[in-house]
Amino acid sequence: MNSIIIGAGSAIAQAVIQSLHANAENIITVSRKLPDQSNPVIHGFTSDYSPTSIAKVIQQIKDLNLGSIDRVYICNGVLQNDNIKVEKRIEDLDPESFMSVLHSNTLTPILWVQALLPILRQQNCTITVFSARIGSISDNNLGGWYSYRASKAALNMLLKNACVEYAKRAKGVKILAFHPGTTDTPLSKPFQKNVPKGKLFSPEFVATSLEEIIQNLEVDGQLSFKDWQSKDILW
Ligand SMILES: NC(=O)c1ccc[n+]([C@@H]2O[C@H](COP(=O)([O-])OP(=O)(O)OC[C@H]3O[C@@H](n4cnc5c(N)ncnc54)[C@H](OP(=O)(O)O)[C@@H]3O)[C@@H](O)[C@H]2O)c1
């Protein structure tokens, strides 16, 4: 089994890597950060997620001669950083921040879905893309977080598009837009105060739940939008 984890620096990605590692799979990681070279089972690549860099990584993966990819995990997602703050009201919306969030949360994942197509196994292959319930238009009763919400809603639409095309060109590939629930990672750190008891998950719990979900997914040519309990989320 060959797995690739994009955005491998994510805390949830790290837990996914640990759980795959326990099953002695070939693991390929891609991150902006330098890879951990200490583990021979893990093939780590760096990327700035530009199209040129993505193409280079695809070639490097081909050069590994491991065969086609069975599992893809695309974990990229930015909520806040030094330059970007979540919007509480419409006046907070800043064009530059908005474009930056769209770039990392929406464009980067779909560029990988585009680039990986030729090297995916054409049977029982899954692509898991980390989305978020907050990208559900029908679930939006709170407002706020304009850029992040829009980035995940747009991500879901692009995945739906890809799914329609994959259903004709890569029938053996299933795409999952996954909501991990509120998980204890740097992304959620500033917002954990109001999370109800028992509702802040560890990355390890999320990785285990995701593994079970993937094992039970039907390759049906449809995009699934599921949470950590495998419950479908309304678009
Ligand atoms: N934690 C939660 O409560 C929660 C809830 C719902 C959904 N999610 C989603 O779950 C996924 C994983 O998040 P996490 O909680 O594990 O967060 P995290 O530890 O903060 O990881 C951040 C992720 O975003 C990537 N990233 C950061 N800056 C980027 C940039 N400029 N361009 C492209 N990618 C960039 C990182 O990739 P590198 O490896 O390159 O650093 C990494 O994959 C995200 O898609 C997030 O939206 C999380």
Description:
The protein is an alpha/beta fold. The protein has a single domain (2-227), classed as 3-Layer(aba) Sandwich (Rossmann fold), CATH 3.40.50.720. It is built from 5 helices and 7 strands. It has helices at 11-22, 51-64, 95-116, 146-169, 203-215; strands at 2-6, 26-31, 42-46, 71-74, 125-130, 173-179, 223-227. A 7-stranded parallel sheet has the order 3-2-1-4-5-6-7, with helices on both faces. The longest helix is centred in the last third of the chain and has 24 residues, at 146-169. The mean pLDDT is 96. The structure holds NADP nicotinamide-adenine-dinucleotide phosphate.
β-strand amount? 15-25%
The hetero molecules present are: NADP nicotinamide-adenine-dinucleotide phosphate
CATH architecture: 3-Layer(aba) Sandwich
The CATH superfamily is known as NAD(P)-binding Rossmann-like Domain
CA-to-CA gap between the ends? 32 Å
CATH top-level class: Alpha Beta
Summarize the structure.
This protein is of the alpha/beta class and 235 residues long. The chain has helices at residues 11-22, 51-64, 95-116, 146-169, 203-215, and strands at residues 2-6, 26-31, 42-46, 71-74, 125-130, 173-179, 223-227. Strand 1, helix 1 and strand 2 form a beta-alpha-beta unit.
